[in-house]
Amino acid sequence: MIRFLAVASAWKASALRCLPLVLLFVCFAALPGSPEPPDEVLDSCLAVDRIPLSAVSIDPVAGRVEVMEGGPASPYRLYLPDGDNRTLRIGYASGKPPGRDYLFVNSHRGYLDRAIGLAPDAPARLERPQKASFAMLGYLGERYLCLMEMHGQGSRNRKRSAYVARIPMRMGVEMSLYYKLAALPASPQLPALPSPSSSSPAPAALPR
User: Fold this and answer.
1) CA dist list (Å): 193 to 73, 95, 189, 200, 202
2) Which secondary-structure segment (H or E) carries 40?
């Protein structure tokens, strides 16, 4: 009986020592994932090169373009749209060979092939990163990374794709990318002014 009580007491002590770890695991499992960006943020990213018409603030990331090969042993080729910005290291990493491409903001990464909303036939890499538009968006106290890429040539480049991710507060946390593909309507045009000949009344005939 005494031996049984000793074994039970040891088991109870071991269970109490493990209890904090179990509670910590439950708390992490209950934490919600990264919230989906509002529609205003996704739509603003798609139209990042146009005049903003919403409450989303847009800060374009553009400057001296820098491409870093990293040597033959490096698995990635880095593209930085603003290489002189030392506060925010924003860019795109392209795999060599292709695969596992990601966007980054300092220590945060967001992998393109994990983007939520990505169509099965959508390419998991950028077609022309040099032509893509990078920006930082602000909405309701949150900061978002935006990348917009146009598809097609000339007047046919009406389709655009956007990758948007909320930038986490904690360092090193992976970003959750959201993808949207849309065809934007043409920019509205002002109606043509009537010509003077059609708008001005005909002069009255002079009496003879």
Assistant:
1) 63, 53, 12, 13, 18
2) helix 39-46
What whole-number distance in Å separates Cα of residue 121 and Cα of residue 55?
Answer: 33
pLDDT at position 139 over 80: yes
Residue 151: count of CB within 10 angstroms of its CB: 15
| Token reading at 94 | 């392209």
Name the pTM for this structure: 0.71
SS3 30: helix
- Start-to-end CA span in the chain (Å): 137
CB atoms near residue 187 (< 10 Å): 8
Greater confidence (73 vs 144) lies with 144
Residue 125 phi/psi, 5-degree rounding, is: -155, 165
